[in-house]
Amino acid sequence: MKIAFIIFDGITWLDLIGFYDPVSRLKSMGFIKDLEWAFCSRKKTAADHFGLAMEATQMGGTLEKFDALVIPGGYGTRNLVQDREFLEWIRTASSARCKISICTGSLILGAAGFLAGRKATTHFAEYDTLRKFCGQVIEERIVEDGEIITAGAVTSGIDLGLYLCEKWSGPEAALTIRARMDYRG
């Protein structure tokens, strides 16, 4: 299984890292031995609005080789929903079995057309913005509609990561990873 983690300027790193930590443990703890990922961006580095930066492991190119697309949120999503080239790049992941967002990452999924007629969630302050991109906004922490899985505000990334640990590897894997993280949420 290959995961594309999308990074961009204006990202909220906790969205990404909260999700990445439990999911990466699927590999390190032997639950999915062939799990791979890349940090994908359209440029070499991405930074949050405070300047904390990370280098991409894949710049540009297509996203079609990935099984899962993960889009975190952050203030940068507000501009990216208007960026045609960025959205075209995101659409190259249309064949991904799972399209996932944390917080306002759902706005990007929606602007790319992946949420049309679907149920989704986002950060509580952006429910109205999300409504123009999806069939129904659900005010829940995690919403799954087919291959689309969206999570609410920033700390939901950890919950979503554990949710997918269970979905991909079963309840025992999720409980073991939760215990190793000492996560009591």
Question: Would you write up a description of this structure?
Answer:
This protein has one domain (2-181): Rossmann fold (3-Layer(aba) Sandwich), CATH 3.40.50. Helix content is 35%, strand content 22%. It contains seven helices and eleven strands. A seven-stranded mixed β-sheet has the order 5-2-1-6-7-11-10, sandwiched between helices. Strands 3-4 form a two-stranded antiparallel ribbon. The longest helix is centred in the first third of the chain and has 16 residues, at 13-28. The radius of gyration is 15 Å and the shape is globular. The mean pLDDT is 97.
Look at the structure and give the CATH class: Alpha Beta
Beginning-to-end CA distance, first to last residue = 27 Å
| Count of separate structural domains | 1
**What are the secondary-structure elements, in order, as H or E?**
EHEEEEEHHEHEHEEEHH
* Shape type: globular
The total of helices stands at: 7
Rg, rounded, reads 15 Å
The beta-strand count equals: 11
Mean pLDDT: 97
Fraction of helical residues: 25-40%
Query: CATH homologous superfamily - what is it?
Result: Class I glutamine amidotransferase (GATase) domain
- Strand residues, percent: 15-25%
Largest sheet: 7 strands, mixed
CATH third-tier fold name: Rossmann fold
